[in-house]
Each structure stands twice: as structure tokens, then as C-alpha cells.
Design brief:
The protein is built from 18 helices and 7 strands. It has 333 residues and is an alpha+beta fold. Strand 1 and strand 2 form a beta hairpin. The longest helix is centred in the C-terminal third of the chain and has 11 residues. The radius of gyration is 29 Å and the shape is elongated. The N and C termini lie far apart (65 Å).
């Protein structure tokens, strides 16, 4: 299970700030019962607040990952405990006490030199002490490196692995999106997708809607613009099927959704090209406006005429014979 570590992306990207990082020799841990049997809520605190607002890491982890800690230890009252959190990149040696299922204490951090040697065998440069600590806290290990190689990703650097760690790109994420047909070429695309909320469930929903084999940029774009299966389905039910990604995004951005399309169709406007609806929406032509013109005597106007009328300020209130005659010209094609 992923051991989530949340750090500010901008903080990680700034070399001036990263140079200021001192790898903590230790920190604090807190454990509370989880919502499921065999799972605990683990919180790790380390570093100094002045370096990052997100100095906590918290996740639900199996009790089995806490080497040396038993359920009986957790149920004790004032029981002193010693256990380890062992990761590929390093180990947290924990000491503290429990009372009625809740515990707290301190840990010391020990980097794993064998991890650096194994990275070297795979052609990856040695991480800095801070990068190795980040990978330890996020649980990024050799299995992720090997999975990237199996899926034919470009070989990441140690810095890229650390960035993946702090952005939630773990072994589970890479495997899940790979199982859905996405084998991207570089780790930067994985981080970008993860940052923008492109998760396996979202990818699966697009696959089911008929949109497969999209690029990382296309996945990010549709996610950012709110294009989801429900929106796609609403367009298809209105007769607009197999639209390109750019068309979907444009319709979404301009407020042309299933409701607007249905309302316009009810008023007698169902153009074959949805771009006609985008332009009409942009010009403020909606069913209520069309209805008001019909009530003022303007029937059977085309969408282009309706747009021109809207642009020229034609409303139901302008309906005298003289003004009506004057408006015939701007309404003419």
C-alpha cells in the first residue's frame, strides 16, 4: 500500500530551497486504529514547519508493515513498544507506547546503502540524502524501478524517482494505468497526470466511453476541463457522437451541454455541426431568447440570424412597426 507523502511541488522544484533541506535523523509517529481489521492509521511527522507546511505524512497501512508491532501491543495500557518501518530506501526505527489502541513515540531514520547499490546496477545515479529520504517516506523502491523498465519507460534519474515519490506516482499507479493500455514514455508524464487527477478509474471511464489510447496531454486536458463520461453520454444522446477531444473540450468550455442541446432542439434548432451551438451560446442565444423573439413576431429565424439579432440588441421590447421594419435589414443574411 502506498505510503503517501504530500509535499508542495513548487517547493520541490526550487533548487535554492532544496539545498536548504537537512535530512532529519528522526521524528514523531502516531498510530490510531483503522476502519478495517488489520489496518492502522499511521502519521509520521518530521522536519521543521518553516521548511514546509506539509511536514506530515499519513496513510492507512497494514499492521503487518510495522515489523515487531502486534495487535496485542496496541491493546495494552502504557505498553512500551519497539518496531520498524522497513522500506527499500531506508528504515524508520520506532519507539514509544500505546494506550487503548492509540500510540505515539519517536523514530530514528537509517538510509539503506544497499538501495543505492541496487539503483547503480540498474543504471540509475546515486540519490542525494534528501532524495533517498523522500523515497523512503513514500515507499518508493526497486519494484517501481523494475516495473518502469518492464513497461519500457525511459530510465528515470534519482531526482525523477524522488519527484514521483512525492507526487503519489507509486507502483500501484503505474501498474493500474498500464493495465488499462497506457505505457507512457517518461516519468514526467506520469507525474503530470497524477497531479491533475488522472487516475485509473478516470481512464477506465473514458475507455468505456470509447476514448482509448489518448496521450498524456489529452488525458490531462479532458480532466482539467471537466469532460467526463456523463458529459460525453449527454452529447451522444443528442446525436453528437464520436467527437474529437478538442471538440469535446470546446463544447464543455462554452457551456454547450446536454441540457442546452435538448432545449435548443425543442425550439427547433438541431444543427448537424455542434460548432453552430457553440457560437450561438457565445452570442447569448438561448431558448428563452428565441422564445421572446417568437412572441414578438420573429419566426423561423436561422441561428446566424438569431446571433445577429442578439448582437444588435433585438429584444421582445422592440416591436413597434417602425422599429420592426428597421430591424429587418440587420436580420437579413
Amino acid at each position: 500500500m502506498r505510503f503517501a507523502v504530500l509535499l508542495l511541488a513548487s517547493f520541490l522544484a526550487a533548487p535554492v530551497l532544496s539545498a536548504q533541506h537537512t535530512v532529519p535523523s528522526g521524528g514523531q509517529w502516531l498510530i490510531e486504529p483503522g476502519e478495517r481489521s488489520g489496518i492502522v492509521r499511521l502519521t509520521i511527522r518530521y522536519g521543521e514547519r518553516r521548511y514546509s507546511d506539509n511536514w506530515n505524512s499519513q496513510d492507512d497501512v497494514p499492521l503487518s508493515q510495522l515489523v515487531g508491532l502486534s495487535a496485542a501491543d496496541m491493546r495494552g495500557s502504557g505498553v512500551t513498544v519497539h518496531f520498524k518501518i522497513v522500506r527499500s530506501a531506508g528504515t524508520l526505527d520506532c519507539e514509544g507506547w500505546f494506550d487503548d489502541g492509540k500510540g505515539s513515540g519517536h523514530f530514528t531514520y537509517q538510509p539503506n546503502p544497499d538501495f543505492v547499490a541496487e539503483l547503480a546496477k540498474r543504471g540509475i545515479n546515486a540519490p542525494t540524502a534528501w532524495e533517498q529520504f523522500q523515497m523512503t517516506m513514500a515507499g518508493v523502491g526497486l519494484e517501481l524501478v523494475d516495473e518502469l523498465a518492464r513497461q519500457k519507460y525511459e530510465r528515470p534519474t534519482a531526482a525523477e524517482l524522488a519527484r514521483m515519490a512525492t507526487h503519489g506516482v507509486d507502483l500501484e499507479y503505474v501498474r493500474d494505468i498500464g493495465a488499462r493500455g497506457y505505457h507512457l514514455s517518461d516519468s514526467k508524464s506520469l507525474v503530470r497526470m497524477r497531479d491533475h487527477g488522472v487516475d485509473p478509474e478516470f481512464i477506465e471511464s473514458l475507455n468505456s466511453a470509447g476514448y482509448k489510447d489518448l496521450s498524456a496531454e489529452e488525458l490531462v486536458r479532458v480532466r482539467d476541463h471537466g469532460v467526463n463520461p456523463d458529459f460525453i453520454a449527454s452529447l451522444e444522446s443528442a446525436g453528437y457522437k464520436n467527437l474529437r477531444i478538442e471538440a469535446l473540450v470546446r463544447l464543455r468550455d462554452h457551456g454547450v451541454d446536454g441540457d442546452y442541446i435538448a432545449d435548443m432542439k425543442e425550439m427547433g434548432y438541431a444543427p448537424s455541426d455542434p460548432e453552430d451551438l457553440v457560437e450561438s451560446r457565445d452570442h447569448g442565444v438561448d431558448p428563452s431568447y428565441i422564445r421572446s423573439l417568437k412572441e414578438a413576431g420573429y419566426e423561423r429565424l436561422s441561428l446566424s440570424e438569431l446571433r445577429r439579432a442578439r448582437d444588435h440588441g433585438v429584444t421582445r421590447g422592440i416591436h413597434s412597426a417602425r422599429e420592426g421594419a428597421r430591424l429587418q435589414q440587420p436580420l437579413a443574411r
